[in-house]
Request: fold
Amino acid sequence: MDKEKVSNLQLCLMMYLMIGGTSILVVPSFTAMYAKQDMWISPVIGSFFGFFSVTVAWLLYRRNPGLTMIEQTQRLFGKWAGSILGIVFLLFQIDAIGLITREYAEFIVQAFLPKTPLVMIIGCIVLTCSFAVRSGVEVIGRFAQIFGPIFLCFVLAIFLFLLPEYRFSNMLPILGTGIKPSLKGSLEPSVWFMEFIFISSVYPSVRKGDNGLKGGLFAVFLMMITMVITNFTCLFLFGESTANLTFPFLSASRFVNIADFFSHVEAIVMALWILGGFAQISMWYYTLALGTAQWLRITDFRPLVFPVGLLIGVFSIWVAKNFQQMLHYFPTGGTGSSIIALLLLPILLLLVSLVRRGGARK
Amino acid sequence: MKSARLAAAFLLFTIIPLVTGCWDRTEVNDLALIMGAGMDAAPNGKVELSVQVYTPNQTSMSSDSEMTSSGNEGDMVIVKSAVGTDLADAAQRLQEEMPRKVFWGHSEVFIVGEELAKRGIMDQVDFLFRHPQPREHAYFFISKGRAKSILSINTRMERDSAETLRELTVLAGGMGVTLKDLGGMLAGRSKAIIVPLIGKKEESGQSNAYPYINGAAVLMKGKMAGQYQGEVKRYVQIIRNELESTTVTFPVQESKDDEGGIMSVRLIKCHTKLIPLIRRNQWSVMIRIEGEASVLQNETHVNVMLPQEMPRLEQQLNKEIESKMKETFRQIQDETGADVFGTADAFWHKYPARWTKEQVRWDEIFPEISVYAHSGVHIISPGFSGKTFK
Amino acid sequence: MIVLKLLGITLLFVAVFIYDFSSVDPKKKKERAAIAVITFAGWVVAVMLLFAPGLPGPTEWINQVTKPIWVIFYPEG
Reply:
């Protein structure tokens, strides 16, 4: 496999879209439910985990250069333990990607195309992403480079369009009941920020001389800003009844009505969703395919792409019976499994890596 | 092996055309665009849904020759209605009568009839929020009498009555309650709703009927609790900080002679704030208004050009405003027990911990709240003419 | 109807399998084996879902297994 190279900027935007592609829709509702008027603080708290994950990934990469996390587990833990840990990690990924794809498809069906079967939408996006993944990480990087800024601009645009309708008093009282509500609301965003650990799959492909740490940290920062902006949009517009809406940002975008002329802007949100979803699923797909190939110690992941795609499609159907069950999974099993796979596992790796270097002869 | 690949690829490609053809494709002229909808109470606990459907085909068979002279010819809208157990059921029956697919996305206006408002709107309004199509930007009203009769009005100035209502709300006098605002009020702390009330004005026969905003309806927990017109409504809006400008008429007491008079000023900019206070266990709120006014009509001997007259006039003006505000607040407080002013939110902002503890008792607390008012309006200009003619 | 769906799914999986299988050097046993296994696993789950759509998925299982962790944050579940 010829090593393709990705620049620092591309890395940053790829990670940004990987985590944030679909977050704009679900975050406001969740944070509003627990944090109410302090819902904009929750993503800031959550971003701490993002910075943490990027740093852990980077440290691991420095100690084990050229390797992704799967390869690192194999190296640090040896053949048997490494494989077991590896498969746990992979299983987490396939479950997660099934959920993400499902979330993506559910939104499109619920909000825009109610009669279209889920399978159809899932099939379309997985197929499209598979072409991107098969072509290599550079392709995804270039896509992110073009569309990442566009994504952010549109989010900002919707926020600005709604300015005349805002009630800024909705954010009072700031921290009225203390920091606890914001903490409770920050759990789900934190879980998502932990996913930044996947930056380690892309690190081997980063161009020499580019600082992967800076890119990763900036991506976390962009993610945080995006979440805060979307939360503010919903907070200033709907206040606490944000928690009642299933798709608050979409509902907010429907409210845009400039001079009776410029309205029905929800089409933009749909476009954002598809762009973001494409980038996100492609990135997870790439990580999964690459990880599987590495776990099997195969050099080229490309032949695996289509079969893995089928598996993704199947899992996204299997993962939940209906929309409510899918949504319910995020604070429950999603939190639990993410903490294990994205927090504990990397920390464990880092500790072992430090110990081994520290006094090791192995 | 290469041919096997080719065959497989070919197979994959042929599957694609079989699944094309979107499931959700609907052509525009297969849609019945709903411009406005009304909900009325029907016997046996049912609801009647009436909709104003946009029909762009102009009927050339217009028997009224005077209609063609004004820019709008023919009937641009049709009103259809159906009765059902609830709104969703009625909507389904309505769809069954129509040759086109019902589309709510363009509905600008939703009206609930008086009877249904008295019965309670919470149940039916759920449909408007849950259904993906109705827009959050649509305006919500309660009508005196049946909503259907408002929708059926053939208006001259605007395209249809829905459009008329929408334009009316945008003007300062109307309070615009959108579905988003309604949702906020329903989910809000005080569970009190205030919504514009529309009535139908008829002048010289049926052909000149038009809808207009008549007042405001106050609902408590979704049920109509009171209707307020005129001055009371205006003051409610002032306290809610919604009214940008209005006229205040107040009596002026001459200090030397007994002859008084009335003066009217126009409030140009005013800003109202509710300042809550909890002292021991007594909850009270102070309504504080600041603003500027200019003299509109002077029926007294006072010379409004003289600056030294201003403090006295302002004092009288402010006294009038204060007493009116207190009166209005108490009236709504006593008659409906509905906190439409945002008092609950004011307490939450200032005393979050205390509020969280006591909020379950809000329905008992609110009627007991004592209200004070402070008005700081300044008269900044005398208007175009100076001395009075008296 | 179900037979048709089954046929369609099988056809899809077989097509993908053949495409990838043949694109890989016959010498590389590992790659071929991987493709075969993954495709087959996917097919099995797809067919299972076709016949038993309400099959409990990984979600339920993970919810159970990781309960001790998330219950700290969300006791109400």
